[in-house]
Amino acid sequence: MAALISKLLFLVTLTLLGLNYNANAEIRGKTQRKINRANRYGPFLGIVTQSNFQKNLLLEHPSFTSYNETIEFAGRVFTFGGISGERVVVVVSGSSLINTGITTQLLLSLFRIKGVIHYGLAGSVDPSLHIGDVTIPQFWSHSGLWVWQRFLDGPQNKLPLEDSGDFSRKLGYLKFADYAVYVLEGLDRPDARLDNSLNNIWFQEERVYPFNSTLEERERIFWVPVNATYYEIANDLESLDSELLEKCVNPTNCLATTPEVSRVPTGTSASIYVDNAAFGVFLNDKFNVGPVDMDSAAVALACHQQKKPFIIIKAISDLVGRGSVEDANSFGSLAAKNSVTVTVEFVKLLQEFNVSRPGVFSL
Ligand SMILES: *[C@@H]1O[C@H](CO)[C@@H](O)[C@H](O)[C@H]1NC(C)=O
Ligand SMILES: *[C@@H]1O[C@H](CO)[C@@H](O)[C@H](O)[C@H]1NC(C)=O
Ligand SMILES: *[C@@H]1O[C@H](CO)[C@@H](O)[C@H](O)[C@H]1NC(C)=O
Ligand SMILES: *[C@@H]1O[C@H](CO)[C@@H](O)[C@H](O)[C@H]1NC(C)=O
């Protein structure tokens, strides 16, 4: 009897607390009701962009239908609309891995999402790619998680916390001494052989806690695959009519090459803006990377952990320490437009692949 009474009291207290919380916390009140109403129209395709400029290019695209419905939460604006009948929710992540990871997780936690498309700009460290080209990598990695090795230690020495399994030497390293200009230019100077006190940085896998895996059991991943079906569908984008992609910002200022869409093996991200050609060559040699940016790996890792299909469509807007700064500046908005064009075409292909319920709604 006493047990029953205390259980009842517990339930009553929980209910009262819940009501109280409902009255005070925005997410539980009006916003939560709006989110619930929106989700009745889902699942949506989630679209994550880098900036307001890029978002507006999509919202102004002739194939985009605005539902005139947005939900604001945690400093983000989630905008609802349709692309050729597919219901989408669009959100700006801002740049950096942290902002992008937070935004993607919010998108996946708040809304019923069937898959995620991330589009925007990247640099290229692959010399065969040009400004204005649009790339779709099959794998993404976060290459900014490092162990910075102490001076005089080398590949034969264990890393800190290697024994406990926190870090490993399997992905390899970058040795600062290899980048002394005298070494690179092959000049025979004894002092060029001197070591560099910055020594080596060792690349590490990300730590992930996938949904539906053993709780709180850490897993590791470096190369996160995009959804195989999405990647297969994206094959058709490689033969996209080149007329659809922009080549000129005005009649006298055109790209030297006609932009192309290509699926590429890998892209990589870190919260580092790389404008250094030597590091670019390193990334391309070591990891066979094409596009390099500051956000895609966060989308990849969030979707991977939540087991949501995703794909990333990045237009090349600079050549990472190669090429002219003027080109990067004058063709940035053209590249952004090309990433939007390819994103819209991808949604159309997805739509052909699987007919979903189209249509406007209001909340
Ligand atoms: C959204 O608002 C614009 C401008 O007021 C209007 O032209 C359009 O029809 C509206 N769309 C929907 C789906 O309500
Ligand atoms: C998660 O696990 C549950 C129970 O085993 C299963 O029904 C569900 O399909 C799983 N979800 C995903 C996305 O794997
Ligand atoms: C890839 O996406 C498709 C379409 O949503 C889905 O059916 C499939 O399960 C996904 N594959 C993986 C490995 O998540
Ligand atoms: C097609 O749509 C259905 C219903 O929304 C979904 O269950 C299924 O996973 C989709 N398949 C693909 C390949 O997208």
Automatic annotation (TrEMBL):
GO molecular function: adenosylhomocysteine nucleosidase activity
Signal peptide segment: 1-25
Keyword terms: Glycosidase, Hydrolase, Signal
Database matches in InterPro entries: Nucleoside_phosphorylase_d, Nucleoside_phosphorylase_sf
Keyword Hydrolase (UniProt): yes
GO terms, biological process: nucleoside metabolic process
EC number(s) stated in the UniProt entry for this protein: 3.2.2.9
All copies of domain Nucleoside phosphorylase, residue ranges: 53-138, 239-347
Name of the protein in its database record: Adenosylhomocysteine nucleosidase
